[in-house]
TrEMBL record:
Organism: Ligilactobacillus ceti DSM 22408
Domain SprT-like: 4-161
BP term (GO), one: response to stress
The protein's name in its UniProt record: SprT-like domain-containing protein
SMART domains on file: SprT
UniProt xrefs under PANTHER family: PROTEIN SPRT (PTHR38773)
Listed InterPro entries: SprT-like_domain (IPR006640)
């Protein structure tokens, strides 16, 4: 997905919820394990968003549905900052906005998700419907504790498949 398409979706969401997106939406090639972030600055006691960034790797390798989920996730952070003037992380205030805009209300995309990338070593699959859920390079916290997680599609167990590249 192109950054122009990402920015257009951010603007569409902002307008839909009565906001004028007044910050730049950019690609950050330095983001490796973070898919996106909303940078902000304090003026007095109030925090203001100053920029929304998306990982270059995400935009170049992930499927559109993953990218759209990251966009909604970051826009929930943007809306919370605009509404409250504070960074709420992934607390109940953020979760309320996430649910409102159709985002899964958890920080689910912490690891680098790769779609059909030669760098991926693990593939996640829903045990019930067999839908591909994502691709990972490293055996990080999520993969080591996979039994604590459920698929978004069916709330079923997740299968981790090793990918052997030759």
């Amino acid at each position: 997905m192109l950054i122009e398409e990402v920015e257009a979706e951010c603007r569409r969401l902002a307008a839909h919820y009565g906001y004028d997106l007044d910050v730049p939406v950019i690609v950050n090639p330095r983001l490796k394990t973070t898919q996106g972030r909303v940078k902000f600055r304090y003026q007095g006691q109030r925090a203001y968003p100053i920029q929304i960034e998306f990982s270059k790797n995400l935009l170049m390798t992930a499927r559109d549905e993953f990218i759209l989920e990251v966009i909604r996730h970051e826009m929930a952070h943007y809306f919370v900052l605009q509404d409250t003037g504070a960074s709420h992380g992934h607390d109940q205030v953020w979760k309320a906005w996430a649910v409102k805009i159709g985002c899964y209300p958890r920080a689910t995309l912490k690891q680098t998700i790769l779609s059909f990338s030669q760098d991926a070593h693990y593939q996640l699959i829903c045990e019930k419907c067999r839908q591909e859920l994502g691709y990972y390079q490293r055996r990080g916290k999520i993969l080591k504790n996979i039994t604590k997680y459920r698929s978004k599609c069916c709330q079923a167990a997740i299968i981790v498949k090793n990918i052997n590249h030759k």
